[in-house]
Design goal:
The complex is a heterodimer. By secondary structure, chain A is mainly β. Chain A is 0% helix and 58% strand. Chain A has strands at 4-7, 10-14, 19-25, 32-38, 44-51, 56-59, 62-67, 72-77, 86-93, 99-101, 105-110. In chain A, β4 and β5 form a beta hairpin. Chain B is built from no helices and 11 strands. The relative contact order of chain B is 0.32. The chains are: A mainly beta, B mainly beta. The interface between A and B is medium-sized, with 26 and 28 residues.
């Protein structure tokens, strides 16, 4: 059974810092990995999707990498802003069980 | 383009009752999947549909059921509600025919917050 772990569970940093969120998964037989953000009381917003054949994806200040063989992904946020405060979720798609999500990293960017 | 719409946003039910939640996917999306989110378990997969057919089902009891209509709109039903069913229920749609497998990102609605008392 696929398990997804996100480290750290919570992170608080001053505005302007670059930061890295980590995601690991136990079964490397995945189709893709997605990063989402969730604001309080809201649904999930898709940030980046990395196909299993890709190594990384970039969108603006966000960069996500994927090392399928080692079961790891990182989300890099450059020049963090208070508006980046949210919970960041990593999810892997392995086929029959929908997406398997990690518990998320709760990020606070201090102004 | 309108996003995924879930109704109602909030529901309060008592134990033993049943509830139906509704989801309208993004126009053109034919795949719909449902997830339950709780503080303890996080996000857990319930089921997914494509073209009115249930493709996969998560590890939930038979009290949880769903369906998809010809216009891709979907409903999920929970019968004989238990206190532990209190959660945020999220619906997601995607363009691809296998929302969890292929290269189409999922687009989520804002969810239905169900409280069982």
């Amino acid at each position: 059974k696929q398990e997804v772990t996100q480290i750290p569970a919570a992170l608080s940093v001053p505005e302007g810092e670059n930061l890295v969120l980590n995601c690991s998964f136990t079964d490397s037989a995945i189709y893709n990995l997605q990063w989402f953000r969730q604001d309080p009381g809201k649904g999930l917003t898709s940030l980046l999707l990395i196909q299993s054949s890709q190594r990384e994806q970039t969108s603006g200040r966000l960069n996500a990498s994927l090392d399928k063989s080692s079961g790891r992904s990182t989300l890099y946020i450059a020049a963090s802003q208070p508006g980046d405060s949210a919970t960041y979720l990593c999810a892997v798609a392995g086929g029959a069980d929908g997406l398997t999500f990690g518990k998320g990293t709760h990020l606070i960017i201090q102004p | 383009k309108a996003g995924v719409t879930q109704t109602p946003r909030y529901l309060i039910k008592t134990r033993g009752q049943q509830v139906t939640l509704s989801c309208s996917p993004i126009s053109g999306h034919r795949s719909v999947s449902w997830y339950q989110q709780t503080p303890g378990q996080g996000l857990q997969f319930l089921f997914e549909y494509f073209s009115e057919t249930q493709r996969n089902k998560g590890n939930f009891p038979g009290r949880f059921s769903g369906r998809q209509f010809s216009n891709s709109r979907s409903e999920m039903n929970v019968s004989t509600l238990e206190l532990g069913d209190s959660a945020l229920y999220l619906c997601a749609s995607s363009w691809g025919d296998r929302p969890s497998s292929y290269n189409s990102p999922l687009h989520f609605g804002n969810g239905t917050r169900l409280t069982v008392t």
